[in-house]
Amino acid sequence: MPALVASDLDRTLIYSAAALALTMPDARAPRLLCVEVHESKPLSYMTETAARLLTELGDAAVFVPTTTRTRKQYQRINLPGPEPTYAICANGGHLLVDGVSDPDWHAQVTARLADQCAPLAEVQDHLLRVADPVWVRKHRVADDLFAYLVVERELLHEDWVKELAVWAENRGWTVSLQGRKIYAVPKPLTKSAAMREVARRTGADLTLAAGDSLLDADLLLAADRGWRPGHGELADTGWTAPAIRALPDRGVLAGERILWEFLEAVRGA
């Protein structure tokens, strides 16, 4: 039976220039590979060692990129290694099979959201009314499933995020602050549900996962084993669980370490 590896991407396996956390002397910095270009500019990176490890992992297990990104945003990424058969986008709202969204899965998800939480339009309206134009740079809706704001972090009050989280909780939604983005995501929209579906389809008897944010917590808990880096929402709050390993590594080197951990677990299975 194959092992299934479902990993978050941004700030878990791939990193923007601002998130690299290269704290060593310049001469000792790792060689980097650009894995995403946007508007003709390099945007995301991993170390060359991580790229080699991901290629090995793709040959040894069912690797499933698992992201809150929309399908369009995900398709900008050019990961090394075999092309994944499955990918999870929009926080579980889309299950891509050979690059195409599975319509049956998407229909199941949208029906579940309609039954279990407040509609997207209500959340959108609230964000437009209560977010301060002084620190909001963009309002966005992702694949008609959830909403997010792009903000100036240094101008944002943490109390505002906490108040939004309480408001959202009462309507069946979750709030997550990741870098310069504030996400409002329906609680039933989960990466874990999509991961379980891929495990069912592939017959995987071992599931491994990694992630750094609140939106990854359900994915980590659903896997047989999970890892989180030393940065991000989960690390900042000290979040952990019995089958989760909290790594000390931060920045792009954490991505490299996570891939080492995945490979060791797959080969030891």
UniProtKB/TrEMBL annotation:
GO molecular function terms attached to this record: hydrolase activity
Entry-linked InterPro entries: HAD-like_sf (IPR036412), HAD_sf (IPR023214), TPP-like (IPR024197)
Keyword flag Hydrolase: yes
Keyword Hydrolase: yes
Protein keywords: Hydrolase
Protein name (record): HAD superfamily hydrolase
